[in-house]
Structure formats: structure tokens, C-alpha cells
Amino acid sequence: MGDLVAFQCSRQLLSFTRQVPTHKTLWNKSYSSIKVTRRGKPQSTEFIPRRLNFVVLSPVETDQRVHNRSVRDVRMSNESLPKKDKDPSFAASSFRLYKQLTNWATLLYPIWILAASLLALFRPSLFSRVSSKSISWALSVLMFSVGSTLSLKDFIPVLKTPLPVLLGFIGCYVLMPFLSVFISRCCNFHYEYYAGMILLGCVSGGQASNLSTYVAKGDVALSVAMTTISTLASVFMLPALSKLFLGTVIPINAIDLSKSTAEVVLAPILLGMFLHSCLPRLMYILEPALPLFGVVATMYCVVGALSKVQNLILSNVGVLFLPVMLLHFVGGIAGYYIPKWLGLNEKVCRTLSIETCFKSPALSYVLATKHFSAYGVRMPSAVSILVLAPLAAFYSVILRFLSVRNENN
To answer: How does it sit in the membrane (predicted)?
Structure first.
């Protein structure tokens, strides 16, 4: 007998409307097997369409069917994955938890700084091996963490509107020196304390102000520009101001200052900006932890500086604590409300406030030790090392919790 082919197939007539202007279509195919036998033995099995339906669906029904099918496909594909990867949002939830933890650790910035200050004040022997070179490296880490959050486009508004930079310069070299003179005369300080307060009010801004600006949701690019300009300008401004208020010239080595500024401030910031533009995915992952790196670097700088002047602080903190606190606090308040009165936006006002109050007490202490033989001249700078870091940390965190209004003005 010849080959016997058995076909089992059912067909259904097709009916459809030619014009379906506003509906989507969905073709539904089901299959039936055709068994091909030879001499009563099955040889192969093939499949041909058994039923071909033309279904007219509304857009809502179509989207619902596609959605159900997608959900079913995801569930089926997840069966072969490890348990932790079955949830498509596992990576997102983990990254969200990581951001929350680093954010809370950063918001405790004042507590970490205050704890480090007290530890260095009452247990200075723990930090006896902290050297000036290691403090410079810690400052470089701090500047790198700040630069990693920046790009070149962040500096465009700074170049277009030089008024905030000019106000920051005036606050650093006009407002703060005259404020230090006013407070010293109100407190009737003798010459040593008077000279120390003037020196503290005339030095450039501190590098840790960039971290405080970032925590306070200020303009970090503006903060970096102002810190760099005030540091370089101190070569000319500090001798002039010391001659005006103290009658003596305090020389500044321009070459050494420019070199240290380039190494400690500019190079780490440029490196961070380069990585931010070349490795965006890596920096996106590291960005939540970058402020925490800056906090750790700031703590290291604080304990390194305080442990070396612990005796000076404990012997003079009662007399100088309030005047030094007023110098930084009043400077910060004036640095906020004067730009606000001039119509600048909230982020710029916060930045100018922090930059105005944030001096460099470590620099003024070194200058007082080098150029004045009187022991009391270095006292205000030593007390400022204790006062400034916790004060700026608390102030920046308070600003962070306040809403940033008029951001685009």
C-alpha cells in the first residue's frame, strides 16, 4: 500500500470589516498537529495553522493584553534567576538604600566634627603622628570629592555673572577685617589678642567651605571659584591689610602659596571634574558617598590641627570663645542677607554666607607663629580651629533642610 497521510485540520471562515480607522488589530493563531504516517508507524509531526481569527480590539483592550503578556513573560523568565534577582527592582531598591545611608551619614556631619574636635582636645596623644603633609593629602581628598560633583558647564553662570564673586571678595577682605576690628575694640583686647583677631579676619577663605556649600545645597562651582580667588589674592591683600590695621607688613611668599594652591586645591578639583565627565556611570554610583569622603577628610584635618594647639585652646577658650564665635556668626549672617537684599537667588546667598564666615584659621595660626614673637597673637586662631568647623557644619545642615526658593531667578 502506498503512503497513508492523515490530515486532521479544522478551518473557520474569516469575516472582517475592511475599514477599521480607529482600532488596533490582533491576530490570534492556534495550531493543530498533522501526523504523517508510513505503514502505520508515525514518522514525523508537523504543525500548521488550524484556526486563524481576526479580532478587532479597542486600544485599551490591546494595551491590557500586551501588558498581561509582558507580566507573564517576566514571571516566567524570573523562575531561572537567583532569588535576589527575581524582583526587577532589587538593584534600584539597593541603590536607594545606599543613597539613604550615605545621606544620613552626611547629615550627621556636625556630630562627627564635634566629636572629632572634643576627642582631639582631650586626647591629643591619639593624633600625635598626624603630620602636616598628611593634612595636605586630606585636603586634597576633600577637594577631589567636591570636584567630582562638578562639570565645566557649572562654571558658566559664574563667568556670566561676576557680581557674586565680587561680593565674596568684598566680604572676605573688607567686611570680615573691619568686623574683627569692631569686635576686638568692643572687647577691649590688649595688643596680642587684637593682632590675632585682625590676622584671623584678614586671611583667605578655608577649603572646607566647599564641602559645607555642597551640604547646604549652595552653588559649589561659585564656592570653588571664590575660594581659589581669595587664596590667590591673599598674596596682595594680607600684607596691605596688616599694614593698615597693625602697622606692620606680613609678607606672603607668592610662589609657595600659588604652588600649594595648585597642588592642594586646583589639581584635585580638576581630576574630579575629569572623572565626572569621562566615567559618568562610576561617578553616578560614587556620588552619594562623595560628601562622606569629604567629611572624613575634614575630620582628619580638624584632629590634626587641634591636637597641636590643645594647650593654647584650653588656657584661653574662656576669654576668646565668644568673640571668635561672633566673628564667624555675624559674618555668615551678613554674607547671607546683603546678597538677599541685592536680589540674588537663594543658592548664591547660601554660598556667600558660608564663604564669608569660613576663614582659614590654620593659615592665620601659621602666620602668627612665624611673624609675631608674642605668644597671645596665635590664640584667636587656635580657638577658631575649635569653633569654626562645628559651627559651619551645623549651619550648613540647617540650610540643607530649608527649601531652596527662587532657584532660577
So the answer is: Multi-pass membrane protein
331 vs 204, residue with greater confidence: 331
Give the confidence band of 164 by pLDDT, cuts at 50, 70, 90: very high
The pLDDT score that the predictor gives to residue 24 is 41
The model's pTM: 0.70
Together in a domain, 106 and 243: yes
State which residues form the domain around 177.
94-400
Q: Please name the residues in contact with 102: beta carbons below 8 A apart, sequence gap of 6 or more.
A: 288, 289, 291, 292
